[in-house]
Amino acid sequence: xxxxxxxxxxxxxATCWEGKIPAGQKSEIIEIGISLLDTISxxxxxxxxxxxxxxxxxxxxxxxxxxxxxxxxxxxxxxxFMEACDILRAEYSEYTWASxxxxxxxxxxxxxxxxxxxxxxxDNHINVKIxxxxxxxxxxxxxxxxxxxxxxxxxxxxxxxxxxxxxxxAKILNxxxxx
Length: 179
Description:
Number of helices: 7
Shape: globular
CATH architecture: 2-Layer Sandwich
Oligomer: single chain
Radius of gyration: 16 Å
């Protein structure tokens, strides 16, 4: 088991639409953004984006405007969800991992269950949204951008791009662990 000197940060992006999901489509993971937080130095290591070709949906214009991810990009560079899970299992399964809120863990668990794929990550999960609210004594939890604003830390990269959000979440987690 890897020590908690490094914590895996994950942020998922999924197909999305403005309004209702179109008939015959479903929300599914299209990017797994990854960073490792070195809890001793505070360094954010190995940012990575795993792009995933959707099987049951097409990237909408709304989704591209939100994430910058296009269907063409996924068609050219994406891998299957099973391959992405194989990478997570092989390279990251022993890490304690964190995400901002419960969406990422629930979405990953649901998609694995629906597709009959063995869940690739450890059960050791940190919900940074809850941890941040507790550390700051907030009565109402805030989103990732709100947490960065409270910390007077600029949002780096593109909001709603998994690899960038993973790095931003790592900054928030680092503050939580060292405040």
